Amino acid sequence: MTAAQASSAGRQLLPLPEHGRPYDLPPVPPRAAALVPHVRLLRLVQAALGRLAATEVGEGRAVLEQAAGHARSGADALATVRAQ
Hints:
Layout: H1 2-13, H2 36-54, H3 58-83
Helix pairs in contact: 1-3, 2-3
């Protein structure tokens, strides 16, 4: 639930993409390992938003940093579930 809330909060901060296509996730492995691709994806999003934030100033930077933080929170939450 925490991962979904963090992802939703981050998504609300950003505009919809104008180009590209959704990220293709690999086939889902069984049990807790099924969360691995999602944790990886959220870590990639966190890193990408962090790199973008470093190139911005002002409010744009703050929004990107906040969205990266939500991606980190979502990844952390899923990784915690996976570890249990």
